[in-house]
């Protein structure tokens, strides 16, 4: 007997709702029952759309990465690209996504074997975009070093902002850093 096929539109809706729920309530204690109840569906519905809890968590992490993707467009240089990254990542509307990111990152650092896929790609998109913004004539190793420094600095500033740091102080620090680029 063949089961009914997965409705991919419904799966995407459930996945977005699961990420929203995790952003609001945390990722560490995400359980089938709690999540199903919060989404107004049965545990069986989640199993049908995601298979196992591990597959659901992997899908949540992938969607989180998608939400964290920042557009630098055709920024003319590293400074403009870094400014675009900061403007987007520090946007108050995106704070729940980045709070969830830092929560998951903390868990991943505690249990790297369970989050290997997440750790392998965390920051790759930002670093790659910032490398490209430096232009094709830039030495790739130097571009990667600069991009890494920008990502690390902006992540630190973002963490300070999310931790309840004085917004004016954090944005002022970001502006000073970005101006120095």
TrEMBL record:
UniProt entry keywords in alphabetical sequence: DNA-binding, Transcription, Transcription regulation
UniProt keyword DNA-binding present: yes
InterPro entries: Homeodomain-like_sf, HTH-type_TetR-like_transc_reg, HTH_TetR
Coiled coil stretches, renumbered: none
Domain spans labelled HTH tetR-type: 8-68
Protein's UniProt keywords contain Translocase: no
Name by which UniProt lists this protein: TetR/AcrR family transcriptional regulator
Taxonomic superkingdom: Bacteria
Portion annotated as DNA-binding: 31-50
């Amino acid at each position: 007997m063949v089961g009914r096929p997965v409705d991919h539109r419904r799966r995407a809706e459930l996945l977005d709702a699961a990420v929203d729920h995790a952003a609001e309530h945390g990722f560490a204690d995400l359980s089938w029952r709690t999540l199903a109840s919060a989404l107004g569906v049965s545990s069986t519905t989640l199993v049908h759309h995601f298979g196992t809890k591990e597959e659901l968590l992997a899908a949540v992490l992938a969607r989180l990465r998608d939400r964290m993707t920042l557009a630098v467009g055709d920024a003319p240089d590293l400074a403009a690209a870094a400014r675009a990254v900061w403007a987007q990542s520090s946007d108050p509307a995106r704070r729940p996504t980045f709070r969830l990111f830092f929560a998951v990152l903390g868990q991943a650092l505690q249990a790297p074997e369970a989050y290997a896929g997440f750790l392998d790609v965390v920051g790759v998109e930002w670093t790659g975009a910032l490398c490209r913004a430096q232009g094709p004539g830039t030495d790739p190793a130097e571009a990667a070093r600069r991009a890494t420094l920008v990502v690390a600095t902006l992540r630190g500033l973002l963490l300070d902002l999310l931790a309840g740091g004085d917004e004016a102080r954090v944005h002022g620090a970001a502006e000073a850093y970005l101006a120095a680029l």
